[in-house]
Amino acid sequence: MATASVVADVHDWFSWVVILSNALAGLWALAAHRRPGLRSLALWVTTAAAQVTVFVQAGLGTWLTVREGRAAPDLHALYGFSALVAVGIAYSYRQQLRDHLYVLYGCTGLFLMGLGIRAVILDSVA
């Protein structure tokens, strides 16, 4: 049972890592769309790291649901699943939207931030 509380605590605080990292990556990408000087490898590393946090968070949530038998509010789980899908969609459209890549990843980062905020709000209400 001690593991459950540790995983739950990590899932709770890590939600802010997901929210803030995707906000940073999204805003940076949108700024880079307007200012080419902001385009760098560091932007893509930050974007990738921020999107990986979504998968880590989903894994922690899955652990809590499957291994610990905790129930998540239905919409909380939907937002988590939607975040995973959003990362996949952004990645799959990167070639078609090559001319607007920074807008694609900027909006994706902000969308992921919004899903995270909404999931946190739902979790605090439940």
Structural overview:
This protein is an all-alpha fold. The chain contains four helices and no strands. It has helices spanning 2-34, 41-66, 74-92, 101-125. The longest helix is centred in the first third of the chain and has 33 residues, at 2-34. The protein is elongated, with a radius of gyration of 15 Å. 27% of the residues are buried. The model has no long low-confidence stretch (mean pLDDT 93).
Briefly characterize the structure:
The chain has helices spanning 2-34, 41-66, 74-92, 101-125.
Q: What is the count of β-strands?
A: 0
Roughly how many Å is the radius of gyration? Answer: 15 Å
Straight-line N-to-C gap:
21 Å
Strand content: under 5%
Helix content: over 70%
Give the overall silhouette: elongated
Structural class: mainly alpha
Please tally the helical runs, counting DSSP H or I stretches of 4 or more residues: 4
In this structure, how is the largest beta sheet organized?
A: none
Overall pLDDT: 93
